[in-house]
Amino acid sequence: MSSDPELSRGGYDMNIRELWKQLLQRDEHIRLEVKLGNEIGNSVMQTVCAYANTIGLDGGYLLLGIKEDKSANPKYTIVGVDNPDKLQSDLATQCSSKFNEILRPKIQSGVLEGKTVICVYTPEAEARVKPIFVKKQGLDKGTYIRVGPTDQVCTPDDLAQLFQLRNIRPYDETLLPQTSLLDINPNALDEYRRLRAKKNPNAPELRYTDEELLGALHCIESTDGISKPTIAGLLLFGTEKVLRRYFSMMRFDYVRVKGRDWGGETDGIYYSIELREALLTLLPKAEAAIMDDMEREFSFPKGSLTREEKPAIPYDAIREVLVNAVMHRDYQVAGPTLAIRFTDRIEFHNPGYSLKPIERIGTPGSQSRNQTIASVLHETEYAENKGSGIAKVQRKMQEAQLPPPHFESSKADNTFVATLSLHQLMDEAALAWLNQFNQFTLSGEEARTLVFARNNGCVSNEECRKLTGYDTPKASNLLKRLRGLGILEQHSHGPGTYYTLSEICLQEKTESDLDVQREVRDIQIETENKPDSDLVTQLKVQDTQIETENKPDSDLVTQLKVQDTQIETENKPDSDLVTQLKVQDTQIELRREHILSSLPDVLRDEIQSLGQRISPEKREEMIVRVCEVHPFTATEISILFRKTRTWAKNRLRELVNAKRISLTIPDKPNSRNQAYYVPESSTQMHQDGNNF
After folding, report:
1. CB 46 within 8 A of CB 152
2. What is the pTM of this model?
3. Which bin fits 273, alpha (ψ -120 to 50), beta or left (φ > 0)?
4. What counts of helices (H) and strands (E) characterise the chain?
């Protein structure tokens, strides 16, 4: 099933049914809304208005005759409408009279579970007539846009953006003073002719003169009989001299830095190029700069002795992201288009937020702020058909078994960032990590999904679809199976649902120590099928006691010593477990000593002298005092207080919820590098409280 069914395909009844299925699977979202539909009231008109206004949304769907009850299960119930003909007539009448512009939504009735349901598709209005608003409410209070699954009144900034797109001359069609045809680079025109002939050898414009060609491409305009290039004409075909004079900061920069982070320091940069020339000649040079610096993978195809070479990121993916960057950027902002190559990824930074909602990127339809530039790049096959370029990037990354591209758009900062990962999902480290799930017989799609969740902190249905090529229901079933196996945990419901690795999976960390090793050891022991083993029983009892919070620390130490003594007297020289336990206990003590040495003397002495039956409140107070020194991980806290990591995670989570400590990585609570600290404000508040 398509995520956004077209009403014109296959009949309205079919599409109503598909929309209903989509509602049950994804809940209401930015392009799908449901209402009871007893009458055509303000709520219906607001949704119609919002679909017509929202930039780049390509309209949306409204189902009438559906009841929503957030407290019930299922959440949505088909109740139908009593008088579908009248409702359709009322809706059409109000759409032609209640707005400042006449709207003509597509309206059709269909049958679901024996009840009549009305489907309303409102297309996005043309830019020249926006904003659409309810006349009775006025422009300020009656203009709506879609924000997620809701209708929201436009802010002044929203209105300004809508008006900016209405009846104004595109920026790239603007004429610049003191320019002439002498500012056009003949080499760029030759490149256009070459690329155009490659796509269509019989294109009539190939026979035009240079001036006629530029005119046909809307790259020049005549004023008082004198032809002058537009901004689009200069950007596409201009000489380096004129570009430097008028667009000194509008260049392409490729930078390679050390490591995975951008520190902004020049000593971290060890490769950099700058390109400032017409887009028609700049693009192939920018492509070459990136691809020449790209690692190659080598393989021998089956049945061949010839070595095959391919880049770590597909060429087509690089090309499409680069072309989209220069095609859709905001040329009114002075700044370069920047490609930054990190150890694990390439980021393309671009002035100009996406005019298309981020959740709609990669779907059919395109909205460009530079229509002339986009048209020329389409004619030369640099750019794909409307909206298909990003879809091609997603497909190429999937075929290469790479994570899907990641896009960030900030209207506030007027920026757009596209990220392509360099790391294969199934590298050696990932395969080694997946070994812990061998008993579940995971499919390749399930394995890729888990590795993605491991690398990115979480995975959604949409990301799963991109990784696997599955449709929404199949991706949902995959995620539910992994949740049922206890590997993933579900968070939230509806369109905001996402999944993270469960606690047992998160214990595989680079910082893993004794507690993690002991949990892995216990699993191994339990699978050895030796129910009569005294050692198995002892270890299970020990771990149960460790989990019990009210057990004295000294008892735990004694138990561990007794256990080690018992193991040593078992006279099993061939047992790897004996050696493993001895190493583990040594490691934990060494690690604990190291952690203690980082604490102030007073605090260290207090921890070492903790009583046998310390209260939970006292222990929490000690954890807070420890985190005041510097950030500590859950593993370090568990070792310091001689508890399991699970116990530490629970205590730390409680302290975070109580706002006594904070996360060092708040946007990724399950990050492998997560640590906990006490903000200065909290420390001051605590101190002030003690003064009263």
Report:
1. no
2. 0.50
3. beta
4. 27, 23
Q: Which of 227, 242, 400 lies closest to 317 in space, CA to CA?
A: 400
| CATH of region 547-691 | 1.10.10.10
Contact predicate 112/78, CB 8 Å: yes
Pick the CATH number of 12-164 from 2.60.40.10, 3.30.950.30, 2.40.110.20, 3.40.50.300: 3.30.950.30
Residue whose pair of structure tokens reads 């896009």 in the numeric block: 407
Give the SS3 label for residue 66.
Answer: strand
Whether the predicted pLDDT of 178 surpasses 60: yes
| Residue tagged 């139908």 (tokens) | 80
Distances in Å between the Cα of 669 and the Cα atoms of 488, 652, 676 are 15, 12, 10
Q: What is the DSSP string of 267-304?
A: GGEEEEEEE-S-HHHHHHHHHHHHHHTS-EEEE--TT-
Residue pLDDT, tens place only, 597-643: 888 888 888 888 876 567 778 888 899 999 998 888 888 888 888 88
Segment holding 227, helix H or strand E: strand 226-229
Angle of the 186-199 helix axis to the 279-292 helix axis, nearest 10: 80
* Per-residue tokens: 554: 């000294």
Distance CA 517, CA 508 (A): 9
**Looking at the predicted structure, is the pLDDT value of residue 540 above 80?**
no
Instruction: Spell out the residues 6+ positions from residue 531 whose beta carbon is closer than 8 angstroms to its own.
Output: none
Q: Which residues lie closer than 8 Å to 547 by C-beta, 6 or more apart?
A: 644, 646, 647
Residue 194 has pLDDT above 90, yes or no: yes
- Partnered with residue 150 across adjacent β-strands are 147
DSSP H stretches of helix in 457-533: 461-468, 472-484, 503-506, 514-526
Half-sphere exposure of 414 (CA within 13 A, CB side): 12
Contact call for residues 101 and 118 (beta carbons, < 8 A):
no
Name which CATH class applies to 428-506. Answer: mainly alpha
152 class by beta-carbon count within 10 Å (0-12 exposed, 13-18 middle, 19+ buried): middle
Tell me which residue has tokens 């190429």.
396
DSSP annotation of 568 reads H
* Token duo for residue 251: 């260049």
**CA-CA distance, 652 to 286, in Å (whole number)?**
48
Cα–Cα distance, 556 to 534 (Å, whole number)? 19
Read off the tokens for 45: 């008109």
